[in-house]
Amino acid sequence: MEIPIREHVRFLSAGQFHAQPGFIHQRRLLDNNVLLFCVRGELHIREAQGMYTLRRGDALVLRAETEHVGFAPSQGEPPIYYWTHFVHASPAPGKEALSLPQYVSCHTPEKPMILIGQLMDTSQTPDAHPMACDLFLALLLMELARQSATGTQNSNSLTLHMLEWLRVHIQDQVTLGDLAKHFNYSPEYLSRTFKLRTGMTIKAYLQQRRLEMAKELLSSTSMLVKEIAYAVGYSSEKVFDKVFARSEHMTPTQYRNAFPKPHMNLR
């Protein structure tokens, strides 16, 4: 949707909602826009033909005069999210407008969370200037638009860098937290970006690459199974055996025995 920068964006109300387990958002049709920003758990929302699952750092703008409703109960940790009601004018001809996608996955959710906190604090301050909330709202929308634009531009490059980093550290006991610390992004954002660009989770990708390396070593070297397990990044031979058998339906030793021993000429 288009939020005009030079036109008046008017704040109406804001708050934080703590849902119960199995929460389903009620069906609603409002005459104003609603910005949702998830800080914990999962929130499932359908608006018109769009179906969205919000997790930490995800923002969604529900449009005025368009019905929205939850399409599935929350699973696991009950969701917590901020909500902000607002209205805005249609972009005037020749006016600069802010392009804000309806759904934004923030790579640094802390920034919009700070702005939301300032917005809520200002809205509850009796002697705050009448324009203060409108200004904080405009800053929040611009920050979401900025993160959306940079996220789209950088996600392909970021994924390539993640793949290379994982390749180099394939033998280490790497975690999503290690990846997040190295690239200075939130774990949730990296996980979603990687899944979007590769079609698999980071955990699944690491397992696939480690098994590929293990099969190569099993078929072409005389390394002990225990040595191979550590070489490809598993914490123990027992864990490696379990993962390998579940994936290949045979033990590492059975896989190795399926290949003929290479013939070597002695000098």
Q: What does this molecule look like?
A:
The chain is an alpha+beta fold. Helix content is 43%, strand content 20%. It has eight helices and ten strands. The protein has a five-stranded antiparallel β-sheet, with helices on one face. Helix 2 crosses helix 4 (187-198) and helix 6 crosses helix 7.
Question: Quick summary of this structure?
Answer:
This protein is α+β, with helices and mostly antiparallel strands and 267 residues long. The protein contains eight helices and ten strands. Strand 4 and strand 5 form a beta hairpin.
Q: What gyration radius follows from the Cα positions, in whole Å?
A: 25 Å
C-alpha end-to-end distance: 75 Å
Task: Specify the biggest β-sheet.
Answer: 5 strands, antiparallel
- Could you tell me the mean pLDDT? 86
The helix/strand class is alpha+beta
Fraction of residues in helices? 40-55%
Morphology call = elongated
- SS strand fraction: 15-25%
Strand order of the largest sheet: 2-8-3-6-10
**Helix-strand sequence:** EEEEEEEEEEHHHHHHHH
**Low-confidence spans: pLDDT under 50, at least 5 residues?**
262-267
Secondary structure tally: strands: 10
Q: How many helical stretches?
A: 8
